[in-house]
Amino acid sequence: MTAMTQPAQPPATSSLAMIRTLGVVATVCGVLLVLTYQNTLEAIEANKLIALQRAVFKVIPGAASMQAYYVSPAGLVEASGPPPPGGMKFIAARDAAGNLKGLAAEAGAMGYADMVRVLYAYDPAGQVINGYGVVSHRETPGIGDKIITDPRFLDNFRALDARLNDAGTALVNAIKGVKHGARQNAWEIDAISGATVTSRAVAKGINDSAGKLLPLLRPHIEKLKEAP
Amino acid sequence: MIPGREQPTNLQEFLEGLWQQNPVFVMVLGLCPALAVTVSAVNALAMGAATTFVLLGSALLVSLLRNFIPREVRIATYILIIATFVTIVDYLIAAISLTVYEALGPFIQLIVVNCMILGRAEAHSSKNPPLRALTNALGMGLGFSLGLLALGSVRELFGSGSLFGIALFGADFQPWVVMLLPPGGFFVLGAWLLLFNWWRTRSPATLKPAEVQGHG
Amino acid sequence: MADASLSQIFLATVLANNFVLAMFLGLCPFIGVSGRLNTALPMGAATTFVMLVASLCAYGLNYLVTVFGLEFLRLISYIVVIASAVQLVEMVLKKYSPTLFRALGIFLPLITTNCAILGVALFQTAREYSFIQALVFAIGAGVGFTLALVLMAGLRERLNLAIVPNVVQGAALSLMLAGLLSLAFMGFAGLGMGG
Known about the structure:
- The structure holds 3 protein chains of 3 kinds.
- Chain A is α+β, with helices and mostly antiparallel strands.
- Chain A has one domain.
- Helices cover 36% and strands 25% of the residues of chain A.
- Chain A has helices at residues 15-59, 146-149, 151-155, 196-217, 221-225, and strands spanning 65-72, 75-78, 88-94, 100-110, 115-123, 128-136, 160-161, 176-178, 188-190.
- A 7-stranded antiparallel β-sheet of chain A has the order 2-1-3-4-5-6-7.
- Chain A starts with 14 loop residues before the first helix and ends with a helix.
- Chain B has a two-stranded antiparallel ribbon.
- Chain B is globular and about 60 Å long.
- By secondary structure, chain C is mostly helical.
- Chain C is built from 8 helices and no strands.
- In chain C, helix 7 (131-159) packs across helix 8.
- The longest helix of chain C has 31 residues, at 37-67.
């Protein structure tokens, strides 16, 4: 191939040459990509698993091991690969003896700046949400990020009412965020003063997730309580 | 390679990107990542490092292939190469540190539309041998990182009262939260540009006149 | 995971999470093009159209890439589609409105490197928007971008008649203005959140 110098009229390149170049470049790039992808896959999955474990053990104290599942109208399966249609992912945490300590699931909703993702812990015995932790957020530091540390906000999640109606199709009372200081019922979340948008996002995310997950989960709770 | 004109030395190539044509302060390029992730000095450095990686990789590949790429498809080829390296750095960061990955978020992938990288490939890497291209890319990348660091440090200092995560002021420090929000980003960069302009008007001998227009 | 209603998404994207003033996307044309009011509007319209096309294609591409397990090709496929869409818009404009084509000049092909377009594709993928949600998101992003552009153009045309110190002129001034606009737009926070 001749080098591209600067003549008065450069000869038009043939289509074949153009396609050949693009093909070669695409192949080189493709090889680089696949090599990187395969060599980083393990490390990335390991990182994600460690982060998830840390979060689950934080929202479910006393847990020693965890197992992820997909639950869908079709049934309960251990989580691997893409979820089945209509399926939702949750994690069952057990203590050292193998007893079920609690179930955890991710929830998310649009906050002030971008998605706020949280992990919440559900206690099937009392039908309450008794643990909560923030997974990722882009909220304002010093204001929105109080959802991680504010003690009064965290108190919301000691025993957040998440009962299902008798038919098991929906939550009896939708979990919602209310103005700071206006919380009256066990299914409401007291927003942080000055961070209403972010607090409401947490409430909305948990409501949406629990509203879908808990009805799907109900038929399988007994089976989960058995030691594996 | 214009015959008869003296070739710039490697050092001059390096300094060009660092100072005379600093991407952030002089050419006002690559603004999107500059303002979005520079809420802390660490994030700024990480973004600078990622961009430098892509700059180096693409400069090398474009320079190696410069005699094989026909003029008509050159932009498409450059974009393909740049996108490849951006995807690579995306996976590398996720594998090294999930915290940094989450902090930088979608702006890692947005490196691909950083006009500075495409501009380098078109204006320089496609016309120079690999070593020279790499030197220039390194200078450009470091200049960009310096610009981001300047932004990130000021915003972190006034917005969180810390630098690189180390608290500098006492517990009574009232942070300027606006520094961590979008308006703060705009103001701080505007202030740096103002300082730069002022510095140049006072020493006109060395640098070209302050022709700061933003372009794609 | 995204259960926001369409009106919420639209309002939030145009005002509360404006692409330019809150998410820092699309800054290069914002600082560069917005000097004149009569180029700002067509530029915004062209960008909105490309965003729409990019959003549609990104939705389809994401589905394909996930189904075939080729996630590492996602970014490349997005950027290739965007570059092609811009080429298409260029050709259409050149044929049907040559004056506009000349007025926009170099900034038309530069839409390809406009982070806002790729931003639309990337954010809608990250937030797992459905097809309709993605469309509304793209339109909202375009409208928000145009709004910011027009506001900035109006301000700068006014400033041309004012006496501005030399050190501030140019990009520094635009950035300061953008900071003020961004501050103002923060007043829209929570709009469209409902509940």
